């Protein structure tokens, strides 16, 4: 029988929701609303004088070549992080789901990176690939492969992409392992009896049944690439060399806290928030149609 919870009091459900609503209002809606108001204002670095300028901050943004270049940088970075993160974690989850003796240790080691802070992940990968003291950089140079993320923008982008993918790999891995374990074993055994190989069983049975998990992780990874990778980029490259790794969220920080353009920074945050909302809506509107629940 289906169990239902009935509240005899009309105010008790609202009381239970009040703490979460208060946290969301204070730490999300209020800052977002304040940033939206500031995007239509121009103020000095100390906030002593405020002038209402309307859409001037937005017009200045889209007339700025460096801001338009940051769109391309963000699109490339988010695409690489989302695609590589999902593909690699799916491969690792597939092998972890197989019956091996070291499965428990294998899964435990893959979960550990999620406990690392983004800034720490950026520093770790910076040390590994540092041209002067990095172990990996030393191997690359010994193989006559030039590597210098401090001067080469492509190398810097590869560095932050690897760090961001490694940081998010554990999160994706957990969901894919749970999804693979929920696939009925009878379907896989029936396909094996019919002569289907391991790849065919995965592609025709397991992967289609993982489509809800894959869609969920696609949305999460896009949002992660746009927002949560700020600590990695700030610790590893500071948006450099030049502006080659300055994605939109880092440019919001740089223009607001270093260049002290508070109105322009607020306008950038409003545009960034609109882009992420639009991408999420598009994914739910079009990509979700191909998801099999």
Automatic annotation (TrEMBL):
Main location: membrane
GO CC list: plasma membrane
Compartments where located: Cell inner membrane; Cell membrane
Membrane topology (UniProt): Multi-pass membrane protein
Domain ABC transmembrane type-1: 71-283
tRNA processing among keywords: no
Domain of life: Bacteria
Gene Ontology BP terms: transmembrane transport
Record's keyword terms, sorted: Cell inner membrane, Cell membrane, Membrane, Transmembrane, Transmembrane helix, Transport
Keyword Zinc: no
Transmembrane segments: 12-30, 75-96, 108-141, 156-178, 209-227, 266-287
Database matches in NCBIfam families: PRK10561.1
PANTHER family reported for this sequence: BLL4140 PROTEIN (PTHR43227), SN-GLYCEROL-3-PHOSPHATE TRANSPORT SYSTEM PERMEASE PROTEIN UGPA (PTHR43227:SF9)
Family: Belongs to the binding-protein-dependent transport system permease family.
Subunit (UniProt): The complex is composed of two ATP-binding proteins (UgpC), two transmembrane proteins (UgpA and UgpE) and a solute-binding protein (UgpB).
Protein name, UniProt field: sn-glycerol-3-phosphate transport system permease protein UgpA
Organism encoding this protein: Ramlibacter humi
